[in-house]
Specification:
The protein is α/β, with parallel strands linked by helices and 249 residues long. It is built from eight helices and seven strands; from the N terminus they run αβαβαβαβαβαβααβ. A seven-stranded parallel β-sheet has the order 3-2-1-4-5-6-7, sandwiched between helices. It is globular, with a radius of gyration of 17 Å. The two termini are 31 Å apart. Bound molecules: NADP nicotinamide-adenine-dinucleotide phosphate. The site of NADP nicotinamide-adenine-dinucleotide phosphate has 30 residues, from helix 2.
């Protein structure tokens, strides 16, 4: 596995926390050149320093994935540095959950902009390069809430993650001819900052109680991503669902 990760140029959005951070650390340990993107510069610089101290290679890109030009900037700078892109991990995402009747329309907009448009901007930014290379790998973070509707408080979040599932599957079918791999991940409750995103006190308390009972370490997702990248080029791991063993939903 490690030999198929070593030296790969991997862009990770949402690398400043949670799943993205754990994935960056693991892939860098396996010798990938990781490009760390998110909005919080200090967090990214601290992570890049940790990776460098461990003998790895990392670039920091401050970017908002909801802004198309920011995402294009990440890709341009990555190409300037390495002249290729092997993997894009569309991981940045938010989960400000609340019942629909609370009408948190601005949070719906932010979820759509980050979780759906951010993924599409990432795909748009790397696709020409990967088609030209005739190789590449796009990894999208959906959720178990992208397989079943998290009704009650997570309907819009589920909507965005169902969209990621549809976009990933359509992308996979379209780019198979270009030798580009597509992987979609459907994680259950994983330890990160995601659970603090709700502005609705009741929903927030319920989510945090749920995570407290079930969450598994972010490293579990990092290992699944490393597995998908580490397979030989002719093998595409298209979908991975992973949950805490005791989580039913
Ligand atoms: N944790 C779970 O239980 C779970 C389960 C299923 C799926 N997921 C998915 O996994 C992904 C990662 O989430 P996480 O659990 O690791 O949450 P997290 O700890 O809150 O991390 C989210 C990351 O996304 C970044 N981000 C948010 N909005 C952004 C924007 N507009 N532009 C750029 N970066 C942005 C954040 O960095 P900045 O704030 O610095 O920008 C942060 O690095 C998400 O797509 C989430 O939906 C998580």
């Amino acid at each position: 596995m490690e030999e198929n990760i070593k030296n790969k140029v991997v862009i990770i959005t949402g690398a400043s926390s949670g799943l993205g951070l754990a994935t960056a650390l693991l892939l860098a340990k396996y010798g990938a050149k990781v490009v760390l993107a998110a909005r919080r510069r200090e967090r990214l610089e601290k992570l890049a320093q940790t990776i460098k101290n461990q003998g790895g290679e990392a670039l920091v890109m401050v970017a908002d994935v909801a802004v198309r030009s920011d995402v294009e900037h990440i890709v341009r700078e990555t190409l300037n540095a390495y002249s290729r892109i092997d993997v894009l991990i569309n991981n940045a995402g938010i989960m400000p959950q609340a019942p629909l009747e609370k009408l948190k329309v601005e949070e719906w907009d932010r979820m759509i902009d980050t979780n759906i448009k951010g993924v599409l901007y990432g795909i748009a930014a790397v696709l020409p390069t990967m088609q030209q290379q005739h190789s590449g790998h796009i990894i999208n973070l959906s959720s178990v809430a992208g397989l079943r509707v998290a009704a009650g408080r997570g309907t819009v979040y589920s909507g965005t993650k169902f969209a990621v599932k549809a976009i990933s599957e359509g992308l996979r079918m379209e780019v198979a001819k270009d030798n580009i791999r597509v992987t979609t991940l459907y994680p259950g409750a994983v330890e990160s900052e995601l659970k603090y995103g709700s502005s609705d006190p009741e929903a927030s308390a319920n989510i945090q109680a749920f995570y407290k009972e079930y969450e598994i370490p972010a490293d579990s997702v990092a290992r699944a991503i490393a597995y998908a990248i580490g397979e030989p080029e002719e093998v595409a791991i298209n979908e991975i669902t992973l949950r805490p063993t005791k989580q039913e939903f």
